[in-house]
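Posting this for the archive.
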Amino acid sequence: MSQFPPRWIRYILALALCLTSSGSVVARQSSVEIPCAESVLAIAPLTPGSPLSDNIVAAFGLDGEPISHAGFEQPASVEPTGFPGIAYVRSLSGAYGLFDIENGTMTSVDFEDTGSSILSPNAQSIASPSGSRFALFADDSLSDIRIVDLPTGQTLALRELFPPTIRIIAAAISADDRLMVVDTIENAFVVNLAEPGPPVPIDTTARTSSPVVTEDSRAILAIRHSNEGSEIVRVTVDGSEIETLAAAREWVGIKDFPGNILIGFTRDSVFRIFNEPGMAPVRLVESATNPDPLSLTSAGENLLIVSRLTDGSLKWHLTRLDGSSVADLSMLDGLNIHGAQQTADWALFSESLGPALGVPGRSYQLLDLRDGSVSIPLVQDRQATFIPPVESQQHGRYLLIQSIEPGLGRLWLVDGADNSATMISQYPGNASGAISPDGCHLAIGTFTTVGEGRQGQVEIREIATNTSLASIPNALLLGWALV
């Protein structure tokens, strides 16, 4: 394969969200616009007729021109890291590499002594903020968590800082990369990332849990436990000052949403907590079962909450931050959510949790979190395998639904702004897709067979205009990255 010349393609566009209020139950909020970023497409070159891709990851600009490439054994997918210019590359075996797009270099993420565990940056209960130079990799049980320095690929096992008997249940890195908070069964701790050493308890006088670093990285929010109950407190990073934000109650968890909006919850209620001492919490939902706040609208007004019932089913609530209900969501009870985001104006629901055989007549439900309206953008039409989206873009506006059956692959683009699902590809083989992280561009990969004689290509489209920008032949779609 020839050397790709370095070339940056910069697209700074503005994508207007066309939102109407017809049919709304209440006045509809606006949706905060997300500007287009500098996205690059990642593909695996494919030798025509070969059953497998070449062991290469290649980056292309939006005009279809090559930027750089690097070797990597059997690449399966590419996704952005929180650090601009570096992308995660995952192999078919589950191994990870860090692709430096500008320099065209690949750094293997080497984890020693992992046993049979597969470590991933997408494990639940670990969080690395956008822009951070550090990432957290973990197995599903969080028994093994590694801190990865994205620019260098160096790793540190979190278990080296804790006694072996400590069970970690969550970890998160601050926005300024200075510290990490770690929640364990025994207590909550702070780790200095500049000079990793023994973890320090968030509060040396009492047990704490559910630590959250504030957006400005100046304080830590946590639940402090005592014989009288538990309270939500704000602790300065150095531990010198502690203020009570919410008085004693059986608190279970805290979530900090963008815009400095703090939500606390118990086993049956959800409250808005204020970051100023002396302000009483506002009850948003009560008489719920194991409630969990999931998504806040981009305007910061409505909150989507799920209750996890004892029989395993789900019940959904949509409330304003003043405690009033937006709409009755009983029609969504028992359904699963797909591609949920912390900030979302739309959410897609269906009966299936993952890929499943289609049932003719079974529908996908699209919730507009701004006014509580529910629409049906797509109905399954045959017994093909339908694959629901695992992520969404533009605050949940865009999602992809895939259908696979022998000799035919189909792909739909769901657009929350007009409650639609448009078939964007129907190919005699298979069709896959990926939306750029900013929600401005779409990549569609098609290939004819999965064995000898495989032929593949990738098309780049602009979503707003449905314009084809470029087509890359002899390629398998891996995903998108940011520069």
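The mean pLDDT is 88. The first strand starts at residue 39 and ends at 45.
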